[in-house]
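pinning this so it doesn't scroll away 📌
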Amino acid sequence: MYKEFFGLRANPFNVNPDPRYLFLTRHTEEALACLTYGIQSRKGFVLLTGEVGTGKTTLINKLMEWLRLQQVATAFIFNSRMDAPQLLDYMMADFGVPCDGLSKSQLLQRLYNWLLDRYRAGETAVLVVDEAQNLSDEVLEEIRMLTNLETFTEKLLQIVLVGQTELEQRLKQPQLRQLRQRLTLRAKTHPFNLEETKSYITQRLRIAGSNGEPIFDSDSTVAIFRYSLGIPRIINLLCEHCLVSAFVDQKKTVSAEIADSVARDFDLSDGNASAAMMAPVPPSEKFDLVEALRTLATLADRLRQSEPQNLPKERKL
């Protein structure tokens, strides 16, 4: 609707986790380096956590893109509501290892032989589990047991657990201490600071075809940072609605007034966001703000899903 008006080839603030739009801050680079090092070094277990909307899935998609370029066998679990047998079946299917009609012991033996063949060929296999904070203790224990597939010196299967910050708390529970002890590397995603937010908006516009002419003025990016708390998903949401609003008003530049108006539409104009960036937030207030942002992000995803699509949806990676 507004792409032609602003001279863009694509929607710059689509909430889909497109790895082309991965913005490399210092924290993001460290997280990506941690994941790739853990896989290349056969560390076995790597953990990636971060608050909702901070780009974990986009980062994982970038990792998966790199793994495919390296011709590494991958399995990606994106439905965390599976039980243990379902998870094993899906993993085997994603690896391309036939397992129909096999008992669990036969399935694990076939997986071990397949992993051993890859190891002897100098190759590896990677299992990525997204939204891992929702997994049951039984499934988490099953995943831990997969790390027992090893030689005397190497782990045959590399596992990346990805989840929200609640996953870190779950792993502190006594019944999961064996899993916690096997986590050799930990990576985290973080919200952006003000300068990163400005650069993030600029980069996404450039990738989408902007000719470099400023679309968001300086005051509007400050306002977007203030309301979003530097969380990429909320930045995308606010920026897209700002572009729509500017297009409706036939304005080539997004002003702070437009950003304020959009924030009010999403109940982010009551001063909570501004106060949060100016002073430390008490734990109780911070919890309420995080919950509000989660609700906002969920609403945005539902609105996306309800829109008619011209192209078939791809599976979320």
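📌 and the second one:
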Amino acid sequence: MPVPSDLFLDPWPSLSYPDFADAHYFLRMGLQAIGKLKLKEPFQPQWSGVPLWLSARGLTTGPIHYAGGAYEVSVDLISHETVCVTSWGTLGRLKLESMSVAEFVERLLDLLKKAGVDVSINLKPQEMPNPIAFDQDKARRSYEPQMANNWWRILLSTQHVMRIFKGSFLGKTQRIGLMWGTLDIRDALYNGKPASPGAKADYIRRNAMNAELIEMGWWAGSAAYPKPAFYSFAHPQPAGIEDAKISPPGSRWESSMGEFILDYDDLRKSKDPDGDLLSFFRSAFKAGAECAGWDPNLMGTGQPD
């Protein structure tokens, strides 16, 4: 049965960071609490096992091993609820609505316990300036269903274009996912060579930036850069990359960030958003790879015959 055309939504919906900021904070803290559940799993290089995966309704941890079985926590951004399912048949739901971070985390852990999962997490947020422990973060935060849904649909559309791009890459990659510490969807490509994360690198960075890579992604914005944008950078940063020419028009090198940037609102104005985003990923990768001296054969010819 064909899907009625009026059920299809804009794949690149509007999203204003200033309007979304409070709900974005709530989502970031809530998804960090959920993401920390995955830290019980065996460590994978460059944290490749810890992202949240996109689903047809939101985000999910995927199965997490527990007591000889597994459980999974999903965030449904259509029905706006957090759902826990287990391999022993239990199911629980938690409505997503405006509340404090402390209340959400308390409800989340109670949901898990009622499902038969008795776990604890580190209550300190990661990769945040001036972090407030989850159980101490008692200010009421807004949850905006439509903006949360728009945010997730942008993630879906971005992942689709990322998959087209990485289909030509012949080196080591990771599964595309949402990095819950920074709340960005990212795709990381590696050339197989080790790298120094830097003398002052913290524990997260030491285990994330210990290999040469080119990364690309999208985030919804921050206080320092209050608008959603796509990005790409190379680690270690190669000399001359800031002078590279990339496309589409409007994309640029942002020296304060050490990254190529394409503002999301500029992409929304395009007659071919998917094509322009693919051009951004391809040209930014080419700039990073050429400046860093990567083997050009790592980028293959595209789709198989």
